[in-house]
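Task card 7
Instruction: Convert sequence to structure tokens.
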Amino acid sequence: MIAIILAAGAGTRLGALGEHLPKCLLPIGGRTSLDFYARAFERAGVVDEVIVVGGYRIDDVRRHLPDGFRLVENPQYATTNSLASLVLALDDITDQDIVVLNADVVYQPDLLGRFLRSPRRTAILIDEMRAFDPREFHARVADGVVCELSQSVPAESSFGEDAQAFKVAAKHLPLVRAYAREQLNSGGAQHYAGRVLLGLMAENLLYPVYTHQEDWSEFDTADDYQRCEALVTAPNAGLPDYGAYGLNDVPQAPDPDDSPPEDSRSTLHRLRDSIIRRQLPWRLRWLPEVPAALRHSPGEALRGLVPLTTQSLTPEGFRMRVYGREVLADLMASSAAVGVRPFLLWGTLLGCIREQRFIHNDHDIDVGLLEADFQLVPELKREMLARGYTIRRESTMQVSFMHRHGRLWVDVDRLISARGHYWITEPPSERPVIRAYWFAIPAIGTLARRRFEGVEVFMPEHPEAVLTSIYGAWTVPQQKRYFTRGPLNQMLWRQGEQTRV
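Output:
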């Protein structure tokens, strides 16, 4: 990836602060914005080259350029805006992804790193938590892509404020380059670099990546500059201790709560105490449930024994193999009796479409209910309780049924319609911020019927589109990754913002 930092402007709105230094060299907490970018790029590990487009006091920029950064001059900086600087930088780039950043913005390093490493290669960074300001550019999202970015987006339609960073995949660079030149040739010398996003939005190519409460600030004015100073000098503003933004795919060690400390007693003593106390070592805790599993489903239990003993199959995954079909059948029978249509969602939908069976080592079944059907959850609860299930968890947004053998459950999420999407949200709580997950209404569409694990189920009309919105590249199995802080369709909302969700 090539990073382009636009730094040609004179910074006249900064007043006396910008008289003797370009904005990119103003000291913020003892360092410049270029220094902050250099450190973030180093930690992200995906930026191969950095191009700084300068203009105002370019000799000063040249003298203080971080090691490895390359300087490109915009000699017409006084009569053009950042779109012209972007075109100059693009002239030497052919087959690499780019990220475009402004020199007068400071990001927390974790935020910029997550954006650079997010799987969306053509994307814009959106701050969904910042208080709505009609003077700023806001994004409107439809069917999972950004369809409008302007100051005309009303608060009730805004998915967040433009956070001043965007990425373009190499395959989309010809479109961006052609659109930028067309804009310049038609009198757009005063356009910002973000003007090229209009061309990407016209082709439905621009995805949102959300800030998730990580902080950033631009410094166009003296007041902005003070906010940046506060941002980088705050107690939590130092470089956090995290490894490669959560991209380590090495399987995690067992939770300490699940594995006892080392036992210094002899093997004979440990075996004796296990028999007397009816306790088993951590690695053999699955043994007691095998007899019941063999009685319930001999074939599945026998097929799961070898991977279970070698620990390639977890006890939770073993239970899903043995009892999952029964749980699914009970849910669908109970739903039919009530007249509701739960449809596969999350990992269960992924398993159905990609694996044609439950995902290996999955531990629960996930389904959704549209608003009208969720109103009948009391009747659904009576049906499931009559079949021997218990209520594991219940709120205004979800009900979860525990299987009678325990530690295997089905989560039923409520989908509400708002702002052109279906949403699943966390229930109200004392926390100021809750998570929300969006789904494109056309992707859910008219529910389709399909047989899965021998049971007739419902699923979204366009399951591939739903899976793409959640997981991105879902067709190839991969370790769970946390650099996007959850599924790709996750957002954060302040409690009580009724105009949003």
